[in-house]
Every structure is written in structure tokens, then in C-alpha cells.
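WARN retry 2 of 3 for item q-0093 after timeout on previous attempt; input resubmitted unchanged.
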Amino acid sequence: MSNFKTICVFILIGIIISVVINLNIGFMKLSVSDFFFSDSENSQIAQLRINRVLAMLLAGISIPTSGFLLQEYFQNPLAGPSVLGITSVASLSVAFYIFLSQDFQLPEFLQNSFISISAILGSLLLMVILLAFSHRFQDKSFLIIFGFLVSALAGAIVSILQFYAENQSLKNYILWSFGANSQVSGNQLWVLTGIIILGLVLSFKSIKPLIGNSLGTSYAQSFGVNLNHLKLFVIVASSLLSASVTAFLGPILFIGIVIPHFSRMIYNPAKLWQQWILNMILGMFIMEMFSIVSETTQFPLNVITSLFGIPVILTMMMNKGRSAV
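OK item q-0093 returned
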């Protein structure tokens, strides 16, 4: 326990340092008064940076939690928020909105709101479909296959829409798909926070049943774990957490797989609730660091997470292949 607390303290210190650095990165140098006084000359720029930092903290909490739940439920370290097709369907919903609404001229703030709403509605629709099909699939692996097929279908439809899209619509979709951590407004942050809190409550309710589930189906049932309720909580919680971030920040890939892996490397063996806490605080730290890199290099957030995540996942697969030999 003492080692766990020490690790958490060091990561929390890292979060504070990265937040301070993040607030001070940008084209314009700001003073302390800009962050605390609304009548300051650069207070609006300061508010944008605060929103950026808060958005990254929320993403760091929600995406790793979604990946953590799915990995523990499926007992597969390569499972992540995209494993059920949630991210892909959210992207498909945004693509439908951007490409089919090209003839309508809307103010920018309304357009951003409708993009977020379409992503959330698409993910909620998939969540309903998953819950309906989950009763037919007794084997967990079938849900993973179903998610893979949904992702492939969504990707194919998006490609068709891109093929027939006009230049401006295609540009808007590509910009959204890159991930924009600096365009989240204060009102959107409140909505994002509310959805994430709901997802975290369901996540908390899933931890104890997941402990029993990790010991086997028969063992879990003998201790009174309702496996149908567990499946419901995991699907709904992971859908809400990953869909909300995708809606407001764009698809942030691979983090839901990588951070739970790092958490196990840092502190293992650990109780499940300790791993969950470690996932959230490590996620906040890493997302803040990615935000710093994004603002410094002007690379899109999704590009940075992919460049970081893909080599890690390949290493995980190679190590798993060697251990199986």
C-alpha cells in the first residue's frame, strides 16, 4: 500500500507540473493575472488554455477507464474503447452530419455542438444494439468480433462518404478526426463532465463484480455476481466514457489500450481498484504531456497518440507472442 501511495504522489506531482507547463504554452505569453481576472487584457486566451487543460484531464480520466473496464471484462490486454466499435460509430455519425449538412450554413458554435451531439447519439445507438445482441452472445469473444465488424463497416461507409464529399466538407471532417483539444468551450466542458461522472459511477459499480469475473464465470456466479448486470455496466460505462471524449475532442486512439498496460507495469500485482485509480491519474499525466507536445509541435493530437501508441501495442503483441511459445 505504501508503494502504491508513493507512486500516486509522484504521478500527481507530475500532473501539477504538466498542467502549469500546459497553461504557459502558446503564441502569447500570459501573466498570472490573465488567469484570475476576467477584465485582464488576455483573459480570453487564458480561458482557452484553461479549457484545453481541463479537457485533457477529463480525457485522461475517461479513456483509460474505458479501456481498463474492457480489458478486465474480456481478460484481453489488447482490448480498448474501439474494440466494440464505439469510436468508429461516433466517427461515422460525425461524418454523416458533416457531409450531409454541407448545404446548410450554420454558425460555428452551432456546428460544433451538432458535431458533438451526432457523435454521442451514434454511440448511444450502437450501445443499444450491443446490449440487444449481448444476450445472444454467451461467449465474450463474439462481442469483440461483432465490434470489429462494426468498426470495419463504419470505416467503409466513411470512405464512401469521403469519396463523394465536397472539398470543404472533407477538410472539416479530417480536421475533426485529427483531434482538437483547444476548441472545447466552457459549456461543452460541463456536458462532458456530466457524462463522464455518470460513466465513472457505473465503473465504480463494476469493480467488485469484475474481481469475481476475473476468477472465472462459475466462481463469480457462486459468489452472487450477476454477469448480465456486469455486462450491462461495462458496455454502458465504456460507451459513455469513450463516446463523450470522441464527441468533443475527436477520436483519440490507442490510449485506452496503452495506459492500462503501463499501469500494470508500474504497479503489479495490485488490487483492481488500485489499478483503476492508477489508470486515471497516469492517464491525466500522459494526456497533459501529449497536449504540451501538440501545442509545441503543432501536430494534431490524434497523430501524437498514434505515434506513441502503435509501437507500444506492437511491443505488447510481440511479447505476448514470445510468452505463448
